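3.2 Worked example (two chains)
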Amino acid sequence: APGVLHTPSAMSWRGLISRNLRELRILLCETGAGSQGGRDFVMQQYMDLKVLNPTFDFLIREGTDIEAKMIARFDWGVEEEVSIENHSVGEVMKKLEALVAKGQSMPRSEESRDCVHLDDIVAAKIKTVC
């Protein structure tokens, strides 16, 4: 549910977004039926994801007659694009989880490796509160 933090096991990969990705772009059609799941994902999940990853760049862009997709940027400028056209919120979450897992296995840049993640500190504080 929106605004409700889930159990630590359900949150584990969600809290790793800022560690494993450098940026996530979500492209949606403002009115198209194929983007409905993506729009619902943003409305239902964005707040929780941002709380767990407060310094991370989630870029949400709307356009006319475009295919719904997510574009993840990893270290070293590597990008991967995945379609979320005609996907449910749950299917969009699974695609994002797969991108986060891929980022975990990719080589890190020096900038990323040496960075102290504010998001890790925030996530640790959330865990102690829950």
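3.2.1 Second chain
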Amino acid sequence: MNFEKWKNLEYMSGFGNEFASEDPRCPDSLPKGQNSPQVCPYGLYAEQLSGTAFTAPRESNRRSWFYRILPAAKHLPFSKIDDGLLESNFDTVEPNPNQMRWKPFEIPESKQVDFVEGLISICGAGDPKSRHGCASHVYVCNKSMDDKAMNNSDGDFLIVPQQGTLYITTEFGRMMVEPNEICVIQQGMRFSVAVEGPSRGYILEVYDGHFVLPGLGPIGANCLANPRDFLAPAAWYEDRTCDFTVVTKYQGKLFAGKQDHSCFDVVAWHGNYTPYKYNLDTFAAINVVSFDHADPSIFTVLTCQSTRPGVAIADFVIFPPRWSVQEHTFRPPYYHRNVMSEYMGLIKGKYEAKEEGFMPGGATLHSMTTPHGPDADCFNKASTDVLQPVKIAVGTMAFMFETSLSMAITEWANKNRVDEKYYECWQPLKKNFDPNWKPASSK
């Protein structure tokens, strides 16, 4: 595969927009004035992909229409295949309330593994059958998905590459997603991942609904993740006869169906239900410019909301380079016990609250009400620093999957790549209490 050409891919700008796209090799392939004409241009088939119920409110209704060479229904029956380390039953493991840290997840070296084969579930809650819950996975792979696609019937995948560029072909077109970018493949969208070499990253899966931009409230109309910076692929098709496999994730299990042609045969499409990508460098961070420490929710890129106002099934939050200018304030993240569960990963650099031990390609989990915060070295340094304006997190990008659900750690993740000494980073914290302390003005 010639990856050099992917650098010149065209995209369409906007979050949740109503798009229309046709492969330039087939001009006028989009029907005019209707969705399902008796005969489609070029002898194509019309097919709708729904992302919400037909009767969902118009402002949240999501669907797209494909004009494709063959309908997706043309395939042989699906058969069960090995799930590997993918997990969706989070009720079979013993609870673990401890602070957890994982060393960088290992990329296979001795065998060839593609994106689907390299999926590993770390933690999760809920059940895809009831369409409620979320899960955190990682992927580790070194091989492209040749003549193979994946479809997630259970929910949306938010994919965060950490090492290696992903070349993603979808029914809507192609996307090149590099580390420090993310992409979202929404429920029911078929996609294939090609890689150039060892690749690793993180995945947040949500079962309940779709990701949306967070409300800005008194911030106003601008900043954080701006809608124009989200990019959807432009139509591209291949008309190729081959021994092709579609892997579907259904009710947490993997199934494979064979067909005699590539599923990426959509010549044109229109709608508002699309895959998309986003460059984290375009996030316009908000921060405190007087005193005290704002909550990390100010760094929310995308959210999947629950039925309770303001409470997320999952938030995707980043900690980008930004200026820190607060006066007489402990500037690093505060010590915390959260009613939410916090799963963190590191794309590059060093995270300010724990500069040692938390490594790119690794992860941490601070479960519901589990205490966490800066390690002893960070506390001591931040408590004695001369406070001046300083740009922090330069060359760093950490992120958090935050959820209102209590996450269960999978059996694999309880036994593999665990940093057993993580708790030790807080042990050097000493008692500084002085019952004879007096304010400086009264001394």
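3.3 Remarks
The mean pLDDT is 96.
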